[in-house]
Amino acid sequence: MQYYKDENNQVWAYEDGDANVKSGLTTITKAEADELLAPRRTLEDLVNMFNAAITVRLNAFAALKQYDSMQNAMLMKDSTAFKSDGEIAYDAYDSTWQAALALLPQILDGLKTKNLKCVRMDEIVYQENYYIDNNGIQRLN
Question: pTM of the entire structure?
């Protein structure tokens, strides 16, 4: 299999020896093709991943005290019998988010050192001859 890209970085693949290769394409390696085809993460994706990771950590902390979620553990703050559990959960929630938000500049710097940047969705989707299906996948018309 031979891999090519066009001026829009759209990847084309042809069987070895195929004489019908579209003109104007640039030869690339399979690794380069894989990189171009890899899903691009938007800022919204990164924020959702960041929030999900923090939520998982907080819920694991709450599970140590036999609560099913951090929110339920924090509700105990107003309880008479479990007030200390609620206060501990509330303090853990607050300190975890403070630490996580303090890390954001380092995370963004890490993206920049890898030449990654956050872009608007309209910058990474093909505009002509494509549509986005009901699963959010971009498809050729």
Answer: 0.53
Name which of 33-37, 53-57, 121-125 the model is least confident about.
121-125
Structural domain that includes position 15:
1-38
> 70 φ, ψ to 5°?
-65, -35
| Residue 34 forms part of a structural domain | yes
Q: What is the pLDDT of residues 88-118, one digit of tens each?
A: 999 999 998 888 888 888 877 777 777 666 6
Bridge partners (DSSP) listed for residue 14? 2
Specify the number of domains making up the chain. Answer: 2
> Residue 22 and residue 7: Cα distance in Å, rounded?
12
Q: How many helices (H) and strands (E) does the chain have?
A: 4, 5
